[in-house]
Amino acid sequence: MANKLNMTTVAEGVETEGQRSILKKRGCGSFQGYLVAKPQPAEQFEQQFLRSSKTPPLDKQ
After folding, report:
1. Cα 21 to Cα 29: distance, rounded to the nearest angstrom
2. How many CA atoms lie within 13 A of 49 on its CB side?
3. How many CB atoms lie within 10 A of CB 14?
4. Which residues are paired to 30 by β-bridges?
5. How far apart are CA 23 and CA 61, in angstroms?
6. Of 15, 34, 18, which Cα lies nearest the Cα of 26?
7. Is 58 helix (H, G, I), strand (E, B) or coil?
8. H/E element, 11
């Protein structure tokens, strides 16, 4: 239904390649879950994704 309404969908809790394959066949192109990455503490996420960015903070541009 979301595709017919031109809405983007995100499937949550995708853990296996089989689940991802079924979702893709049904038109869902975005997903999250253990297949992508396991949960992690906020500090670890920040170090891995936010602080590793080479783009300066917006207030410094």
Report:
1. 10
2. 8
3. 20
4. 10
5. 40
6. 18
7. helix
8. strand 10-11
pLDDT of residue 22: 95
What the block records as the tokens of 29 is 């192109």
Q: Which two tokens stand for residue 26?
A: 């049904």
> Which residue carries 């906020």 as its tokens?
42
Q: Please name the residue ranges forming H helices in the chain.
A: 17-25, 42-45
Q: Which two tokens stand for residue 3?
A: 């595709």
10 touches 31 (CB < 8 A): yes
Which candidate, 53, 59, 54, 7, places its Cα nearest to that of 28?
A: 7
In angstroms, the CA 47 to CA 22 distance is: 33
Summarize pLDDT for 23-46 with one digit per residue, the tens. Answer: 999 888 899 999 988 888 988 888
